[in-house]
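Usage

Read records sequentially. Each one opens with the input sequence:
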Amino acid sequence: MANCPKCGVKLKITDWKPNCPKCGVNLVYYGMEERLLADADRAESEHAIFQKRIDRLKASFTGSKLTVLRIVLSVLPVAALFLPLAQVVLNAPFIERNTTVNALSLFGAFSSMDFGGIMALSGSGLLGKPALYFMLATVLMVLTMLLLFLNLVFLMLSCSPRGKSRNITVNSLMLVFTGLAIAFFSLCSSGFDAVIPTIFQGSLSFGAYVLVVCLAALLGINLVLAKQGVEVKYKETFVNGIPSDIYFEAVKAGEDIRALAEQYAPKEEEEAAEAEAAVPVS
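and closes with the structure output:
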């Protein structure tokens, strides 16, 4: 059976009354005020933590003119993916195809690519390396596409504790992947041209260079913001009348929260002055 929360006496099955048989305290309502205060503190603590996240989210987008510029530079590479990135011309018996490479055709080529067949073909002395380069270029560009959309999500977390390093890492990877994809595509084109010059021809289009410039600009703005920093204007929040920062530090240090709350409680003189000021003068 349970014990009395006040005196600790062990309650029997026959102790059906709401009061403790020894000390007489009401078992139902004893400590209720303390529990309600604890629940209120918990709710206000959650609100204070959530408010800080909202403040950091706002600062990530509108903290300065550079953060607004970063939004534009984060969207431009996504738009550049839908520009012509490359041109592939295939002239073979019964096959004549001229394909413009962009985000849509890249995703289609990646989803239908026979990776096992290309890996088996990579051992070929003539077409092995060009085919492998084509696969690597496609995979790297698809990874860049995924990172670009992931970067839009990370943009909301730019003012979080690891936001700066995360943005720079993701942007650097996108730029490196794009550069490698362009290099592998060039090697693929020159490799096929050396073996079957009239059948497969590939050339870069202006969209590839636009994409590289946009990614470099995005990395540059993140480096500048990492150096300058973004000021986060936190909205003042309170827990049990205590400023939330002081409250969390006090809880961490094991201080008496109720005694601390009394220090921040408005004094009777201040309440009287506020009440008097609120009364309209006739």
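Summary fields computed downstream for this record:
- The first strand starts at residue 86 and ends at 92.
- Residues 65-228 form one domain.
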